[in-house]
Amino acid sequence: MTNDGLMGPPWQIDYVEAARTYRDSLPAEVRDRFREALIDILTAKDPYRPGEQVRVQPIRSTLFRGPHVLFFDGSRGWARFVFVRRTADPQIVVEELFWQ
């Protein structure tokens, strides 16, 4: 448990159905790169600030606790996610995923 009363990392992760379907349709090597980027936010104390290896930024600078974008594969792909801060079971929810 962290100082703010939340369970600590690794965080749970869930997907909106469309994001899960899109993830499953990606080539295996792209899914691996996405998984590597996810590991950094899943194990970070604050998923919105995972460290220097993974680029994460808020969608709107005025809503820092709102949706964020995780960039992966040299910014060829991104995932929009939110961190739901529930005391009992905090989790990351991937709402949208894109790769080109």
UniProtKB/TrEMBL annotation:
This is Uncharacterized protein.
